[in-house]
């Protein structure tokens, strides 16, 4: 038995790709491709590991608010809510999904630069009230204050701080630099805190900071958390939490793997904890109820998902060998949008010699490509491939482009059952 990917339980057993103890051929034999397959045990193990690392590193009262944008399948959100997760949301639709999936309202943080009045009203008037709006602009806070006054409410808010650091990640998912649309720079936060009229119907809860996604180097994370802690002290105002955001990366490719003996999750938690203890807890500037919020998405759900697709045909064009599959960039877009690397694994291991292969889908775009020049076992018509680590930003970014149906979603339970958890037709 050889493990292929860390924390995923994927391996070949008797030359058959197996997840946990379930051969994936069990799924391919009864389900129409392409589809997503999620592993319940991997999902919950990832969440519990995140929580356990926070506690091990002395993070005060950690609350893990799962980022629904990564994957908002109602069954998955419900499983996480039952395990104790809160929710990080960025739209009215995600708010409704979190509530219907039994995430307590007081464990929901509402992020995003473009909250509408209708979305603000919905979150304001929910029975229990949400934990906080993560406010991203002066005009947004003004609108929240107006609507809170209209409803006779006190809106709980955190100010999303843009720490003006450069995160080492893809430019499209970096969010904490001065040129990015997200958050408020220090000068604007200092100005806002002095506008006493705004705070009559608004309660300040703390700061939120999020510098980007798919972070594997935590130097910028340390700077961002340190700056947020120091800013909280400068504000000289009671606060109840620091939301350190999400962004913890996944080592999709062999070149991204952590060195042997290195636990990136533990390193990340250690950096967060060290700064909070040094700059807030030691100086004793926190309230008794102070806690730390996290907004992980990718690190919880990425490894819990596979995208399963079938070979339609192969094609040789000069020196180029193509494997054409029935899944496309409309189903899974990360490889096309970001040039992202994902392992591509045949269901059956054979003795055929590997060859340089480009795996493409049926969409009328050259970008519709899952791997280019990858050394893979030769594939035949009607054989199956698994695209690994696709639980995050897979189905949630899928579309009907080329008038194609959305892929179905299935859940592999710990008992080995495969359940249809699709929520769109």
Structural notes for this entry:
This protein has 425 residues and is of the alpha/beta class. It has two domains: 2-39 and 302-420, Beta Barrel (Lyase, Ornithine Decarboxylase, Chain A, domain 1), CATH 2.40.37; 61-296, Alanine racemase (TIM Barrel), CATH 3.20.20. The chain is 27% helix and 24% strand. Helix 5 crosses helix 6 and helix 8 (219-235) packs parallel to helix 9 (264-281).
Q: What portion of the residues fall into strands of 2 or more residues?
A: 15-25%
Terminus-to-terminus distance: 38 Å
> What is the CATH class of the largest domain?
Alpha Beta
Q: Name the poorly predicted regions.
A: 168-179
CATH architecture identity of the largest domain? Alpha-Beta Barrel
Largest sheet: 9 strands, mixed
**Assembly state (oligomeric):** single chain
User: What is the CATH superfamily label of the largest domain?
Assistant: Alanine racemase
Shape: elongated
CATH fold annotation of the largest domain: TIM Barrel
Total DSSP E strands: 21
In total, the number of domains comes to: 2
Secondary structural class: alpha/beta
Secondary structure tally, helices = 11
User: What level of helicity do the residues show?
Assistant: 25-40%
Q: How confident overall, as mean pLDDT? A: 91
Nearest-angstrom radius of gyration?
A: 23 Å
């Amino acid at each position: 038995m050889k493990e292929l990917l860390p924390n995923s339980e994927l391996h070949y057993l008797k030359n058959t790709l197996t997840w946990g103890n379930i051969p994936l051929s069990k799924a391919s034999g009864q389900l129409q491709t392409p589809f997503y397959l999620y592993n319940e045990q991997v999902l919950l193990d990832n969440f519990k590991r995140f929580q356990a690392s926070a506690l091990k590193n002395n993070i005060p009262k950690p609350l893990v608010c799962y980022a629904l944008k990564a994957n908002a399948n109602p069954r998955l959100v419900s499983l996480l809510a039952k395990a104790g997760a809160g929710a990080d949301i960025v739209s009215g639709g995600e708010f409704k999904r979190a509530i219907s999936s039994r995430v307590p309202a007081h464990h929901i943080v509402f992020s995003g630069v473009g909250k509408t009045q209708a979305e603000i009203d919905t979150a304001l008037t929910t029975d229990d009230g949400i934990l906080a709006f993560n406010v991203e602009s002066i005009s947004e806070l003004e609108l929240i204050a107006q609507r809170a006054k209209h409803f006779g409410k006190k809106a709980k808010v955190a100010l999303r701080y843009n720490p003006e650091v450069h995160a080492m990640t893809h430019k499209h998912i970096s969010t904490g630099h001065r040129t990015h649309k997200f958050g408020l720079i220090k000068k604007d936060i200092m100005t806002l805190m002095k506008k006493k009229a705004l705070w009559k119907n608004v309660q300040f809860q703390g700061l939120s900071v999020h510098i980007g996604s798919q972070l594997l180097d935590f130097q910028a994370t340390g700077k961002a958390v340190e700056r947020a802690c120091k800013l909280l002290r400068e504000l000289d105002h009671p606060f109840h939490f620091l939301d350190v955001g999400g962004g913890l990366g996944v080592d999709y490719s062999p070149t991204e793997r952590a060195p042997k003996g290195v636990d990136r999750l533990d390193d990340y938690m250690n950096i967060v904890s060290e700064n909070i203890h040094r700059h807030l807890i030691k100086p004793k500037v926190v309230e008794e109820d102070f806690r730390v919020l996290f907004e992980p998405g990718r690190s919880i759900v990425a490894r819990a998902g596979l995208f399963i697709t079938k070979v339609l045909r192969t094609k040789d064009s000069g020196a180029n060998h193509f494997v054409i599959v029935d899944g496309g960039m409309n189903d899974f877009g990360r490889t096309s949008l970001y040039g992202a690397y994902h392992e591509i694994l045949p269901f059956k291991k054979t003795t055929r010699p590997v060859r340089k292969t480009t795996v493409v889908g049926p969409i009328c775009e050259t970008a519709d490509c899952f791997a280019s020049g990858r050394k893979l076992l030769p594939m035949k018509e009607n054989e199956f491939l698994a695209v690994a680590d696709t639980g995050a930003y897979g189905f949630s970014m899928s579309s009907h482009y080329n008038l194609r149906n959305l892929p179905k979603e299935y859940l592999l339970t710990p008992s080995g059952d495969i359940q249809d958890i699709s929520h769109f037709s």
